[in-house]
Amino acid sequence: MSERRMSREERCPAAGLGLALLVAATTVGCANLAVPADMRAVRMATTGGPDVLRVERVAVPVPRAGEVRIRVRAAGVNPVDWKIRETGYGRKIDAAAPWIPGFDVAGTIDAVGEGVTTWRRGDAVVAALQRSAQGGYAEYAIASADDVAPKPVAWSFESAAGLPTAGITVWRYLVVTGAVARDERVLVQGGAGGVGSIAVQVAKARGAHVKATASARNRAYVESIGADEVIDYRAVRFEERVADVDLVFDTVGGETLARSLAVVRRGGRLVTIAGRPDLQACETAGIVCAGAVASQGPFGDALREIVALADAGRLAVHVDRVFPLEQAARAQELNREGHTRGKIVLRVRP
Ligand SMILES: NC(=O)c1ccc[n+]([C@@H]2O[C@H](COP(=O)([O-])OP(=O)(O)OC[C@H]3O[C@@H](n4cnc5c(N)ncnc54)[C@H](OP(=O)(O)O)[C@@H]3O)[C@@H](O)[C@H]2O)c1
Predict the structure, then answer these.
(1) What is the per-residue pLDDT for 295?
(2) Any atom of ligand 1 within 6 Å of the Cβ of 134
(3) Residue 350: its pLDDT value, please?
(4) Counting CB atoms within 10 angstroms of each CB, which of 24, 31, 70, 294 has the fewest?
(5) 54 - beta bridge partners?
(6) Alpha carbon of residue 151 to chain centroid
(7) Tell me, what's the pLDDT at 1?
(8) CA count, 13 A, side-chain hemisphere, 20
(9) Tell me, what's the pLDDT at 33?
(10) Rounded CA gap, 260 and 123, in Å?
């Protein structure tokens, strides 16, 4: 990454090579990018079951001012992907407006739009695509330059693809909203999942004492990422093993969220990313509660904080399963079962 202004040759090193199959990217200020005209992408033209996801050839997107194009190596799978697939989740998806799912990618910068001076072609990056018109289950993806961070140096692209949404969520709701602090007692509900596993590690990195819930098969994993105690939520009610915590960070929702109020000390906090807390009950219990709200971005600053922890060796992403891009439907269905350990990732390129 460089702060100085780049020459056209640096932004577009392929310019002038005269290769066939070029995208005419005149809006980018890079007229002769050596990329194919079309790409493989997983797309849906309607909401529904896994069979609405189709592998298609679509035009390679062109970055506009303030955007970058990423040559995707791996794409992360999140629960919101199959929630959007099933219901749209407020997003209009039809034959006239088909959608490429996926909010998390890791890859290399391939082209930059007008005015982008912070990234250059070849930079290894991670990006959050919540503000992009299309998602990342594709060979190329567009991101706002402000939603990109360097890939953790020592990480594979597959591990890195598991980081953006989960990492940003933890930064936003555990660190900023939850204000997790040194020596605090924290309970992470769902400590084995994509978000929960990062929450356990970030809470530990910030000096908290961390308990986490997980099923027995994930006990060793959640201990290995730093939890001081793992509570098998299927074997015992967590209320029997934890009380008077300063902060609950909930990734499970439902009954788990409702019951979590009872284990927070008076004056403590509860933050959930998986439902709406009962604010009346929170007030009665003397607890400050918060739920997730739609985020506007930009996401790059939060992503950099998380990447810094990764580069410092304080954070890892466990990749549960890797599927080829063509098996995105299988990947979503596995995540939908609700028992992912760490992250499920799509391999887009070897
Ligand atoms: N609002 C936001 O900004 C935001 C952002 C990201 C995610 N989310 C939401 O947060 C939720 C979690 O996301 P995620 O990506 O972490 O999901 P995930 O990776 O699919 O996590 C599933 C995990 O939940 C655990 N689990 C299931 N039932 C549990 C229970 N009763 N008690 C404790 N752990 C339980 C599972 O562990 P076991 O296999 O051990 O049961 C599994 O590891 C989803 O609903 C997602 O949509 C919201």
Answers:
(1) 78
(2) no
(3) 86
(4) 294
(5) 43
(6) 13
(7) 34
(8) 0
(9) 53
(10) 43
Q: How far is the CA of 201 from the centre of ligand 1 (A)?
A: 15
Q: Which of 207, 231, 200, 230 is nearest to 342 (CA)?
A: 200
Q: What is the CATH number of domain 8-163+317-347?
A: 3.90.180.10
Ligand 1 atom nearest residue 238's Cα: 32
The structural domains of the chain, with segments of one domain joined by +, span: 8-163+317-347, 166-291
The rounded Å distance from CA 73 to ligand 1 centre is 25
Hey, what CATH topology would domain 166-291 get?
Rossmann fold (3.40.50)
Q: Is 213 close to ligand 1, i.e. is its CB under 6 Å away?
A: yes
Q: Is 132 in the pocket of ligand 1 (CB under 6 A)?
A: no
pLDDT for res 328: 98
pTM of the model: 0.92
Q: Is 193 in the pocket of ligand 1 (CB under 6 A)?
A: yes
Answer whether 130 contacts ligand 1 (Cβ < 6 A).
Answer: no
Tokens 């929450």 appear where? Answer: 199
The secondary element (H helix, E strand) that includes residue 211 is: strand 209-214
Answer whether 120 contacts ligand 1 (Cβ < 6 A).
no
Residues with Cβ within 8 Å of residue 207, at least 6 apart in sequence: 181, 182, 183
